[in-house]
Amino acid sequence: MELMWLGRCSRADIITSVCYLARLMNCHAEANWKHLLHVLRFLQGTADECMTLQCSSPASHTAKLVVTAYLDSDHAEDKVTCGSVTGSLVRLNGGTVMYSSRLQKTVAISTTDGELVALSETARDSELFQPLSA
User: Fold this and answer.
1) pTM to 2 decimals?
2) Are residues 126 and 61 in the same domain?
3) CB 3 within 8 A of CB 39
4) 81-90: pLDDT as tens digits
């Protein structure tokens, strides 16, 4: 559970792996154990890295805020449900303010379908920041 907390609160770089491992908690396989050890070694090697939200210049305090969103999706990679996984990242003036990795609720019939579902979910998440950029 601590890995999930760490991934949700401060480490966007591990959230996809942690969510994948969480879905397989009842499946005790050697490959899953190796995946967990890989995540732990990665965390140990990047312990000094952190996310920051900073102002690039004093003039940017009065400038319009810019919301940028990135997303990606796979197709039917979940071995149990055949569902696709959406990964998204929302930035406000270049600083990460929201990120997620989640299993899509519907089964995509193609890669394009999975990408469209990811686009819809990310657009919905990005709407939270629309009042800030107006």
Assistant:
1) 0.73
2) yes
3) yes
4) 889 999 999 9
